[in-house]
Design goal:
The structure is a single chain. The strands form two sheets. Strands 3-2-6-5 form a four-stranded mixed beta sheet, with no helix packed on it. The model has no long low-confidence stretch (mean pLDDT 87). It is built from no helices and seven strands. The two termini are 20 Å apart. It is mainly β.
Length: 76
């Protein structure tokens, strides 16, 4: 199963997006977006929202991919 969704920043400030379990961080500028893809049979991925960050936790390393708004794959 593959699930895809966008993470988008509507605020004027920068939103930090963190991918776990790798700990990779990306700064999402206002009006920017990241396409996130979760793949696999497990359903225990979660998204955690904090005051200045959004964390995407995948159940196992390698089952999450992401691309910036220009279609360039992010290193996770």
């Amino acid at each position: 199963m593959i699930s895809r969704f966008y993470v988008r920043s509507w605020e004027e400030s920068v939103l930090k997006v963190i991918f776990e379990p790798t700990g990779m961080e990306y700064s999402l500028q206002a009006d920017s977006r990241i396409l996130v893809e979760l793949a696999g049979d497990r359903t225990d991925a979660e998204v955690v929202y904090g005051k200045d960050f959004l964390m995407i936790q995948a159940p196992t390393q390698g089952c999450v991919r992401a691309w910036d708004q220009d279609g360039i794959e992010l290193e996770i």
